[in-house]
Specification:
The complex is a heterodimer of chains A (184) and B (613). By secondary structure, chain A is an alpha+beta fold. Chain A has helices at residues 8-24, 26-36, 43-46, 61-75, 77-82, 90-111, and strands at 112-116, 125-128, 149-152, 158-163, 167-168. Chain B has 613 residues and is of the alpha+beta class.
């Protein structure tokens, strides 16, 4: 708030509006009384609930590129995806897949702590109470009626518990996923 | 100076550095508050990560190789060199700019360790560094990492325990202490790595260790690091009713470690591929070494696996077409690794060919015999008398014993994560013991194989301030200078040399030896050199003892030492009789001084004289 900088006129207008409200609004009056005594009214009372903005935002590409760099560095991920697999036998692809699997798994284990959303074995019957987290558990099939819902776990789901990516230097170009290598 | 808040343990390893700390203000007796310190380091250009281990690699990049902003560290704008994970990766591609194994160079008697000689293979234009400087850079990095995380408690104001191999000679110890002093670590003590591992075992047992050992036990510590192997024997004795630990013997410096094993496997696979008509370039060999390490760990930890595929990725972007696929079988691991490094030999076996004390060739004096078990047999055989004079141990070892019988074994080092290698080593030892009708040795378990040394060192920093158990032992060698014998000279033959003992076995930190009765002559204004010897088995020689002859098994020649008396008010060329006085500093380094017959002045005798030679 920058009330201290507001002009005399705007302060006069504020005094008139506030005076009126003190007369008609009991709660407001007691708040002003508290202010005058040097006590701040509780913030819950003072801050009105902000209207819900439509929550769509652009995500920053930096960490996505950083993760892709790590996957390429350790598991040759981009190399693998950029290749035309139809030209090779399954044995050849299998050999390369080991590199990708080992390296990418290392990255995932090192930087993202991934755990299943549900601990039950897939195929198990489970019951979802009212108020379950619809982001973490998706209902499919015969979705009718009221919770609790009982169904079969088809996929355990995955959730990242913690993510710790390397810190990046200011000015580091994350768009270079793998530098070209020139041997002298 | 503010009050010391932490005891910090630093494992300055051949391949990795680790730093651990005990919070002194929060710890009380057995309730020790300790932690491993994360070490921020470059893991890729421009990417900084915290890791528990700092690979001991220093990379000296070309000015155009890395942009300044891609070298930044949290505490430095952009140092002109790279340390840690990124240094290792870059060095794999450009070995001519990589400094590795600086610690092994630090104890290499064949080179001047203050001279800029590393990397050995570097071309002219690379500004090389000395083994001492490389060690300083690692310590600087660790200090900066610490200071960033503990701005209120700078490392230079904490108690620092720096570990060294038990087999480090006086020169290497002094250089290590010098590197630490140069980065401002003034409250420093040195601790032998196998002892640090045992301290960690004591800490990890949470007070239970007293129930796991008893008086009369002899604990063998086998510390198999990335680049070196270190043996120590620690006896359990009693004093005033409580258990006490005494380190009674340490082994030779053996340049043989886990990295050699991975490399041996990779070379075996390379030979197999070569037979099939595929040759690998150095870059691919590195990928193969990495693949073999993982495959080996799987084979050695799971007895049901018979073979593990190993793939060597292509260098170019064509991954599928260019990737080489092969496999590592159980038979290959057994033949190359288990039989190559841990062969079943009997207790009388000895390593083939000893590494010479002074090599003139520029290169590390790697162990000529890769068989760990033969080195162990030699160590235990040589130390058969290690506990003979120890109180309470008389008569415990039968007279017919050909080697010292350990009763318990502590393993340390990442190699022993492969349980079968640990069992193999213990099995070999127990076979030897059974052959002499001795009970099998017990396994002391429960330590953190990668981080034990740093954690044990931090714990030692804690107990040496208080009343926890401490390992006694002092210096593991007696030291001698060579003096010309009074025998008449025989033409055409070098005058015979006698060895005069100036420092007895087992000198504790902060103690001084007596002055020997014998005097040696120093020439004023000229450096005078003496031959210098050490013995890890002659425990009873006192200052002034003169040996007329000895076997190389018993007394080994170390590097020469040198004393210079400044001319000042004396006549240059005049010969002044002096006595050589030994002391072990509080830090844990040996110090020699020349003391003239008259006057109060003394002159330091230098160990590290290779540079002027």
């Amino acid at each position: 708030m920058n009330d201290s900088k507001s002009s005399f006129l705007s302060r006069l207008a504020l005094a008139l509006r506030a005076g009126w409200r003190i007369l008609v609004d009991g709660e407001f009056a007691s708040g002003v009384q508290q202010l005058e005594r040097g006590e701040w009214p509780s913030p819950v009372a003072a801050v009105a609930e902000p209207p819900k903005a439509a929550a769509l935002r652009d995500t920053l590409p930096e960490s996505a590129l950083q993760l892709l760099t790590l996957l390429q560095q350790e598991g040759r991920f981009v190399d693998f995806l950029e290749e035309n697999v139809t030209a090779y036998s399954d044995a050849d692809i299998g050999g390369a897949a080991r590199v990708v699997h080992e390296g990418c798994r290392k990255v995932i284990r090192e930087y993202l702590h991934i755990e299943p959303v549900r601990e039950e074995a897939e195929g198990a019957r489970l019951t979802l109470p009212a108020g379950f987290d619809a982001t973490a558990v998706r209902l499919t099939g015969n979705v009718v009626g009221q919770p609790p819902f009982t169904g079969t776990l088809m996929h355990r789901g995955w959730r990242v518990r913690q993510i710790t990516l390397p810190k990046l230097a200011e000015g580091h170009d994350v768009r270079v996923l793998a530098p070209a290598e020139v041997e002298l | 100076m503010s009050e010391v808040r932490y005891a910090v343990g630093i494992d300055l390893g051949t391949t990795h550095c680790v730093m651990a700390a005990v919070d002194l203000t929060a710890s009380d007796r057995d309730a020790v508050v300790e932690r491993i310190e994360a070490i921020p380091q470059l893991t890729a250009p421009g990417a900084v990560e915290e890791r528990l281990m700092l690979p001991s690699f220093l990379y000296l990049p070309h000015p155009d190789e890395l942009r300044a902003e891609d070298r930044v560290l949290p505490w430095d704008e952009s140092p002109p060199f790279v340390i840690g994970e990124l240094a290792r990766t870059m060095g794999g591609r450009t070995p001519i700019r990589l400094v590795a194994s600086a610690k092994s160079w630090l104890c290499h008697p064949g080179v001047d360790r203050r001279a800029a000689i590393l990397p050995v293979e570097a071309p002219e234009e690379v500004a090389r560094v000395s083994p001492l400087q490389a060690s300083m850079r690692y310590l600087e990095h660790l200090r900066a990492a610490w200071d960033q995380q503990h701005p209120d408690a700078p490392l230079t104001e904490q108690d620092v325990v720096l570990t060294v191999p038990a087999s480090f000679d006086p020169v290497a110890r002094e250089l290590t202490a010098e590197a630490a002093a140069a980065v401002g670590l003034s409250q420093l003590v040195l601790l032998e790595e196998p002892q640090a591992a045992l301290y960690h075992w004591i800490l990890a047992s949470g007070g239970e260790w007293r129930k796991q050992v008893r008086v009369g036990d002899i604990i063998l510590v086998i510390d198999l690091g990335g680049g070196t192997t270190d043996f120590s024997l620690i006896a359990v004795t009693e004093r005033d009713g409580s258990l006490e630990l005494v380190r009674v013997a340490v082994g030779d410096h053996i340049l043989l470690g886990g990295d050699n094993m991975d490399l041996a496997l990779a070379h075996a696979i390379r030979a197999k591929l070569a037979e099939q008509g595929t040759s690998l370039d150095p870059w691919q060999l590195q990928g193969l070494t990495h693949g073999c390490r993982n495959a080996k760990e799987l084979l050695l930890s799971d007895a049901s696996v018979e073979c593990v595929p190993v793939v060597v990725p292509s260098r170019g972007s064509r991954l599928i077409g260019g990737t080489l696929r092969t496999e590592l079988t159980r038979e290959e691991v057994t033949r190359n690794l288990v039989e190559g490094f841990f062969p079943r030999v009997d207790a009388a076996a000895r390593p083939a060919g000893r590494a010479r004390a002074a090599l003139t060739k520029l290169g590390l004096p790697y162990a000529q015999d890769a068989a760990m078990s033969r080195h162990l047999a030699a160590f235990l055989g040589r130390q058969v008398g290690a506990t003979r004079d120890l109180e309470g141990f008389a008569g415990r070892l039968p007279d017919s014993a050909t080697f010292l019988h350990p009763t318990a074994v502590l393993f340390n080092g990442g190699v022993f994560k492969a349980q079968s290698l640990l069992e193999r080593t213990l099995g070999i030892l127990n076979d030897w013991l059974a052959a002499e009708n001795a009970p099998p040795a017990r396994l002391l378990a429960g330590i953190d194989l990668d981080l034990a040394v740093a954690r044990g060192a931090a714990y030692y920093g804690y107990v040496r301030r208080g009343d926890g158990v401490r390992i006694r032992g002092g210096t593991a060698k007696a030291y001698y200078v060579g003096v010309e014998s009074a025998m008449p000279a025989v033409p055409g033959m070098e005058p015979p040399i006698e060895a005069l003992c100036i420092a007895p076995f087992g000198m504790e930190e902060g103690t001084q030896a007596q002055l020997p009765p014998q005097e040696v002559g120093l020439v004023i204004g000229e450096p005078v050199r003496f031959r210098f010897f050490g013995s890890s088995v002659r425990r009873t020689d006192q200052v002034g003892t003169v040996l007329e002859q000895w076997t190389p098994e018993e007394v080994e020649e170390l590097e020469e030492i040198e004393a210079t008396l400044p001319a000042e008010d004396r006549q240059p060329g005049e010969v002044v009789p002096v006595r050589l006085h030994a002391a072990v500093t509080e830090v844990g380094t040996l110090r020699l001084e020349a003391v003239p017959r008259v006057g109060t002045e003394t002159w330091k005798v230098e160990f590290d004289v290779r540079g002027e030679g």
